[in-house]
Amino acid sequence: GVYALDGTVFDPVLGNQSVRKINDKGCASGYSVVHVNNNVIIYLGTDGKVYQFNRVESKPISQMIHTTILGYAGARYQYAKAVFAPKYNEYRITFATTAATHNRILCYNTDTGSWFIKTLTSNMDCIAVVRDSSTDLPVILAGGNSTGLIYRWDDDGTTNYTSDNTTAINSYYITAWTNLGTPVFKLVRRLY
Fold this sequence. Notes:
The chain has one helix at residues 66-70, and strands at 2-6, 18-23, 34-37, 40-44, 50-53, 58-60, 82-85, 90-95, 104-109, 115-119, 124-131, 138-144, 150-152.
């Protein structure tokens, strides 16, 4: 299920936090969870419905396309990837039509409440959602299954970036900050 943590002091001993169950339908893919604005989170549920959580309750928003989603490979829901494009107010989530290829992108416009489908070209598979360093907007990368090329998916509504202009793709990855605890130092006198 989906749970909310309420309270003002979050401490296991001194805190006043409480856990509240929001929904019996859990999240199918951690990569489908997207923070849309200050008050809304959208995610794919284990039942194949897309939910919107507004800090109070979780409501399905995909009723009009639920039959379409159920037609996709349910065993691949756990690999669905999503991104929010603030420039267009769109929640974009990938789905697989076969057992191996994520070749559909369903887009939900948060302003109008409407859905539409983007279809990747043949032999393409959505492989990653990344952030464009020049615009700080999320983009979707797609790979050619037979060509080995990686393409940037359309994010401006005019074209699919499917022409290879031989430009190198510079990739950078910044890991999340993780506290590994207090460092432990040991003196090593001999190495064999």
